[in-house]
Design goal:
InterPro entries: SpoIIAA-like_sf, STAS_dom_sf. The protein has one domain. The mean pLDDT is 89. The radius of gyration is 12 Å and the shape is globular. The longest helix is centred in the middle third of the chain and has 18 residues, at 23-40. It is an alpha+beta fold. It has a 3-stranded mixed beta sheet, covered by helices on one side. The protein has 1 helix and 3 strands.
């Protein structure tokens, strides 16, 4: 699972990753990042890994 972390700053994007991750989990977030880059230019990305049991 991938969940958003809101920092209240448009140029900072945060994610919390927990459990197994599939391409279907990643695709919406990849689209979000592409859109944010189009809007804001450079971004800062923060990722918290809680318990990742596999990426497929």
């Amino acid at each position: 699972m991938i969940a958003s972390i809101d920092f209240g700053v448009p140029r900072i994007v945060g994610f919390r990753v927990n459990g197994p991750i599939t391409a279907a989990d990643i695709q919406p977030w990849a689209t979000l990042l592409e859109n944010k880059i189009q809007q804001e230019g450079k971004l800062r990305v923060y990722v918290e890994y809680e318990q990742v049991s596999g990426i497929t």
